[in-house]
Each structure stands twice: as structure tokens, then as C-alpha cells.
Amino acid sequence: MQGMKKLGVGAFALFSTLSARADYTWNFPEPVTPMALDTLHVHNKFMLITAVIFVVVLAIMIYSIITHRKSKGYKPVADKAPSTTVEIFWTLIPFVILLLIDFVIMGIPAYHSVVMMEDTRDQSTMVIKITGSQWRWQYEYLDGDAKGIKFVSNLATSDGQLHNTEDKGEHYLLEVDNPLVLPVGEKVRILMTASDVLHNWWVPQFGSSRVAVPGFIRETWVQVEREGIYRGQCKELCGKGHGYMPVVVNAISKEQFAEWAGKKQAEQQAANDVKEMSKDDLLAQGKTVYEKNCAVCHQVSGAGLPPAFPALTGSKIATGPIFGADGKYAKDSHLDRVLNGKGVMPAWKTTLNDTEIAAVITYERNALGNTAAVDAVLQPAQVKAARE
Amino acid sequence: MSTTTVAHHDEHHDHPTGIMRWLTTTNHKDIGTMYLTFSLIMFLVGGSMILGIRAELFKPGLQLMNPEFFNQLIGVHALIMIFAALMPAATGFANWMLPLQIGAPDMALPRLNNWGFWILPPSAILLTLPFTLALFGVGDGALATGWTFYPPLSVQGGIGVDFAIFAVHLLGISSVLGSINIIVTIYNMRAPGMTLMKMPMFAWGWLITAFLLIATIPVLAGAVTMLLTDRHFGTHFFDAAGGGDPIMFQHLFWFFGHPEVYILLLPVWGFIPQILQTFSRKPMYGYKAQVYSLWAIGALAVVVWAHHFFTAGMPVPALLYFMYSTMAISLPLAVLFYCWIRTMWKGSMSFETPMLFTVGWIILFGIGGLTGLVLADVAADAQYHNSYFVVAHFHYTLFAGGIMGIMAGVYYWLPKMTGHMYNEKLGKLHFWLTAISFNVTFIPQFFVGLAGMPRRIPDYALQFAEFNMISSIGAFVLGLSQLLFVYNIVSCARGGKKATDQVWEGAQGLEWTLPSPPPYHSFTEQPVVK
């Protein structure tokens, strides 16, 4: 009895949460680019056609199932099998109907959509490059107002939310630290590549998605027509973090974009100015960088997930010397591994700036249970020198 | 002389008993039974894996497993369901029924037949062993790339990938051996008078399947071998840094992978019309049209592969070619649907379990086919691709179109195989539970897919929560309903009402002229077909 009651309350709670969050979507989300609008039209039209086919055929079947039953004493007609000419005539009817649907009603608009989707260059006014890597997106503006701006976009949802120790926020799993910023009304040509495995940059409201292939450049384009924040996800299985590399695009007016670009460029300039930092500052910044970029694999505690992802705590690389006798960083040293990567470990030299690399290395050598005896503190200048 | 073989003692052989009977058997029915049993066991194994997944996806957040384990389960689930559940089930039917239907004493190559089966259990073990090894600290678990093995992720992966590569090799060898046997049997052992155009439709379905397998399995074997050498021997087939291309793997894989869909479905398209004519009590409509359609689909199957990765980037002419050729598959398929329904039309239908499954199959597979038609559209595919819409679509084709078809076949032939009738009430209950819970599971997946939920993610945004919860509930009902199926089969094998030779009132064909169960060497004298 008690059990039943509990079950009843549980079921009630379940259904009330269902209705409380009843923002169901039964179709593609609202399109905001010409491509997505076209895709939605194509999809709706095709769905209507297939639904009509389905309903008509089903109705005929159901009529037959109800009428032509043995239990109603219905006697089977004698189909003269094989009666070739008549049969061929009848079987050609569905053939011809589908021929018409496939290659005329569906085929012609489909042709125009493909041509439109693949035309990345005509009238495009700016170019950006998107690089997918495990498990973050890197954006780079190649021309125009924002030329030279380059940043990494990471998942911003807290670990506590993922593991159910905190309440989940509104944009759970679909929020990032640095969204891609695009001006509305501009046709933006997107060059897509990856640094490790395949990824796929997808915003459902944009209607375009393209696989990012390491070692190759693929192209697509978007032209966002309305200001707003648009969210999507990686949709090519790319390892354990596949569910945790969202895409967020902030579409703003052209004026705001120019303003944003100017500010961002100045910020980036400042960050690139290398200056001497105290150990405490390095540790503080290093902790942030570490938890954002490294903790996915090496864990917040530094324990790693052996054998795929080694522990940093007590690691020879993270405690051993960085610089050789000649003053240059040694092969397979801590700095070498972070800059150039090896195997599954990505190369960070293109993703992190000098200060961030210096900070994270200093953090790894002095926290996570490590106390490096030599080269305990690394300065941004040393990283800058190492790059050259 | 042992007691177990006395019943079958119509030949002057001493058959070994116990485990040796099964290990050494060259009898087509014994081997067929082993294939079907193996398939049923692996169906339950693969099903339990996906219930783990659905439990994790019941609500947002990580509850039961980490993402690594999640990725392993999805890939191994697919490989098991495709290679170890669906394909062996079809091969099991071929072994059991082809000799009976074409009036032969046995399969043409009995020893090869035995070997073909006994390769399967080791490969299933290979596929799942990494899970166990990981428990003992060896390696990091099974294949975590999805069943498609896409590099560079599969080059990066752990020992699970190597295990899966070798498992796929063995499974492939087994399929090719089975195919050779079926082709040889069909071409050489038909009863006098049975011309190709008088063959039962099931034989046609399997003949085309066998040719497709022989044409495409070597390509898959080659592709995964290249992957193996990329992983361990320093080649760069799929690595741009060494002049290779990761997308080339996708071309090779889907050159096998798309025909694979028809490999799974053609045997079913073979026996579905036979079930329809039995329970409609009139001959199947458009035999010739159906045969030509099966050939057309077999031929189209090998020229449309790239529609599985439109978003990987292709020149416009290639996109258009693969789009239009894919749409063309709907033409012969429309003819088939027409013939199936026309077979029912003005028949004298009764709805025993096999017929229920067949009618449900036509409707649900129809949904799979129609959603496939819209997926062919390149522009819209950018949205559907790798979303849950695709997951729902291929479960309508492979679960409804594949497994529910196989279930129709099981209920149809079980009385012939065992000599007993199964429990009709339980059978019908099994059908309704399966059909309803299947839709409860997968209809919501169409909607979350359209709304933008990618597949293969261990956790999802809050807007997808309701549909995922419904889908998980459906999946658990679907999974548990299959226990009825197992119970019904086991109790039918052990006893029950005696089945007649013809079993079904309207059944036509040579297999129904033999006693139920048929004698050990099916036809000792060849029947003559007029």
C-alpha cells in the first residue's frame, strides 16, 4: 500500500515536471539563416509528402485488414499468378508515382538547395577559421574588422552540474566561456579544420553542418539574419568529451561587432605583451587554465585516468628539469610536452598564449601534490623564447 | 545407439551425442539451430547494453557510467546487433529452410557450414573481452568509436579497437563462408523442375544477399586492416600528415556499410511475402516484379554509399549523384510494398502471430523507408545527419524492418522446426508489447533529433529531457517484452500441441510437405516441381 502510494506520488511528480517544462519542439528550431529557412521548407514539404503516402497506404491496408478476413467469411480472389502483362502494368504505377516524387517534386528543389549550400564564396564578406580539437573549438578571424582575433571556446558548465551535485542551469551543456561573435546580415565563409580527430560544427538554427577533418580544410557558410545567442553542439563522435564541446554563437549588429572587434584586439595585444610575473600570480592563473583545459583528462586532482591519460602528480615530466645544459628546453621535458604534444596529448602552442603556458606549467609543478626541485617557476618570456 | 538420435534414425549413421554432436555436426538443421540460438543470446546481450545506455539517458546528468564506458557500449551494441544477432539469424533461417524449400537433403558444403558457425562464438568473445580485461586493469575497455571505426579516433583508441578489428575479420569470414555455401546450394541442389524463376522468394532474397556479402565484406576487411597497420605499423592511409585521408576510410567503410543494410533486410524481404501468402490464402502478387525489384535494390546498394557522410564535404556533382541514386532505391522498394499489400488485398486473412508481426513490419518498415527518402536530400541531411533523427530512422529499418521481420519468421517456422505449436496468446501479447513499446522508444527520438540532439552523447541539454525519459521507458518495456519471446521459444522447443505437416492452413511450398519436425536428412528423394 505504502509502496503504491510512493509510486503514485513519484508518477505525479514526474508528470508535473513534464508539463512544467512543456517547451516541446516537434520540428527544427526556428531558422535564422537563409540556409536553415530553406532546409526547413524542404523538410516540411518532404514530411508532408511522405505523411500523405503513409496515410493513404495505411488506409488501404487497414481497409483490407478489416474487410478481407477469413473470420468474416471472405473468400480469396484467384490472382492468376503469374499473369505478366497485367501485373507489370499495376506494379509500374507505384514505380511511376515515386519517380515523379523523387526526381521532380523533391528532386528539383533539392538540387537548388545543394547548389546554395555549397556556394560558400559568392558575396561572402568575411572569413573565419574554426578548428575543432578534443574537446573545444578554436575561432580565428582571418580578415575584416576582427582580423587576427583568435580564441578558444570551452564548455562553461560546472563539474558539479554534470555530476548532479549542483542544480543544472538553463543552458546546461550548451554554454561556453568565449562564444563566437558574428555580425548579422553578413555572409560569413567558414573554413573548418581539426587538430586531432573528426569533429562537426553544428548550430541547428543555422542549418549548416560540416565535418572538421584534421589535415584538410572544409568550407561552409552562415548568414545570421537576426541578433541573438544561438547554441549547438559537436555532432561527430570525437572521444569521451564529445558531449561536452558546445557551440555558442553571439550574433550582434555590425556596429557592435566593430566595437567588439576593436576591444578584443586590444585585449589580445595586451595579453601578448610578455611581462615578469610573481609565482603567486602564475599559480592563480595556472589553476584556471589547468581546470579549463587539462582537467578533462588529467583530472582536477592531477590523478589522471591511467592508462590513457597519465597522472601528473609525481610524474617525472612534471617534476623533472625543463632546460638542458645548453639552456634550451629538453626533448620530452614538461615544456616540450605542453607546446608540442605527443600521441593523445594535444599541442598547445597554437591554442594557449605564452602567459597561459607559463602559468599552467608553473601550476602543475607546484600544485597537484608536486614540488619540482628544478625549474619550479617558468616565466612567459621563457615560453616566448622557446617558441623561437 | 543413443536415445537422442533414435528419433532421427533414418540413416545408417552413428551420430555423436552431447556437446560433440554440436561441435562436429554437418547437418543443416543442427547448424541452423545453433545460428538461431546464438543470435537470440547475442540479441539479449546487445539489448542489455542498450538498456544500460537508456538508463543513463533517462535524465540529464551523469548517473551510472562515465562517458568512456558510454561510448564503448554504443559501439559494441551496434556491432553485436548487426553482426552477431541479425546476420546469424538470417543465416540460421537459410540453413534451416533453404534445403527444405528447394527440396535438397542438406546444404551443399556441410563441413564449411560447420566451420562458418563455429567462427562466430570466438569472435563474439573477442568483441566483448576488452570489457572484462578492463576490470582486471588490462587496457581501457572495448571499442569506443561507435561501430563505424572512424579514424583518427580509432587510431587514437585503445586495445578495444584491435579486438574489434579481429572480431570483424572473423565475423566477415563466417559471412563469406555462409554466402558461398548458399550460392552453391541454390545453384546446384534445387529439385528437378524448380527453375530459378520458380524458386521460393526466400531463396531469391538470400541469393542476392550472398552476392552482396561476397562483394563487400572484403572491402571492409581491407579497410579495417589498413586501420590496423595505421595503428601499429606506421602506415598513414588515414592520416593527412603522411599523405592519407581520414575520409577515405568512410568511403571504404560505407561501400560495405550501405549494402550491409540490404544484407540484413533482403532475407526478410524474401520470407515476408511467403508469410503473407500463407495467411492471406492466396499466392503472392507479382512474383516476377518482386524478383526484379530485389535485384534492382541489390545493384543500387553498392552505388549509393556516400549518402552516409554528405556533411564530410564532397564536390557538388558527387553530392547530386549520391542524392539522386539514393532516391532511386525508393522505386523498387515502392514496387515491393505494392506487391506485399496487393498480396493481402482480397485475400482471406487470419491474424496469427507471424501475420501480426508481418503486418506490423510493413507499417513500421514503411516509416523507416519514408524517413530514409527525406534523409537522401543533401541540404536537409545537414540537419538530420548524426542527430537522433537518424538513430530513430535506422532503428525503424533495422529493428522493425530487420528484427521484427525475423520474429515473424521465427513464429512462422517454429512449429515446423520443433514439431510443436507455440503459445499463440503469448505470441500475440509479445507482438503488441513489442510494436507499441518500440514506437514509444523511437518516435520521441525523431523529435529530439529534429530539435537538435546529436547522437552518441552521454548527457544532453535540458530541452531534450522529456522525450528522452519517454524513450527510456519505452526501451525498458521493449527489452523486458523480449523475455516473453525467449520463454515462448523455449517452451515450444520442449513440448506443446503437436504441429501438423502443413502447420498453417494456407501454407504453400516444399517445406510444408515434410513432417514437423522434418527428418534428419530432409529430402532423401528429390521432390519434382512442376
Task: Report on this structure.
The complex is a heterodimer of chains A (388) and B (530). With 388 residues, chain A is an alpha+beta fold. Chain A contains ten helices and ten strands. In chain A, the strands form two sheets. Chain A has a five-stranded mixed sheet, with no helix packed on it. In chain A, strands 4-10-9-6-7 form a five-stranded mixed sheet. In chain A, helix 2 runs antiparallel to helix 3, helix 6 packs across helix 9 and helix 9 crosses helix 10. Chain A is elongated, with a radius of gyration of 29 Å. The N terminus of chain A is likely disordered. Chain B is an all-alpha fold. Chain B has a domain of 183 residues. Helices cover 68% and strands 0% of the residues of chain B. Chain B is built from 17 helices and no strands. The longest helix of chain B is centred in the N-terminal third of the chain and has 36 residues. Chain B starts with 17 loop residues before the first helix and ends in a 36-residue tail after the last helix.
Question: Quick recap of the structure?
Answer:
Chain A is α+β, with helices and mostly antiparallel strands. Chain A has helices at 2-20, 34-67, 84-118, 159-162, 254-272, 279-298, 316-319, 334-340, 354-366, 380-387; strands spanning 126-133, 136-141, 150-153, 180-183, 188-194, 199-203, 208-212, 218-222, 228-234, 246-252.
| Mean of all residue-level pLDDT scores of chain B | 92
DSSP strand content of chain B: under 5%
What is the overall silhouette of chain A?
A: elongated
Q: Give the H and E element order of chain A.
A: HHHEEEHEEEEEEEHHHHHH
Number of strands of chain B: 0
Structural class by sheet pairing and helices of chain A: alpha+beta
Strand content of chain A: 5-15%
- Mean pLDDT of chain A, to the nearest integer, reads 86
- Tell me the helix content of chain B: 55-70%
Low-confidence stretches of chain B: 1-12
Radius of gyration of chain B: 23 Å
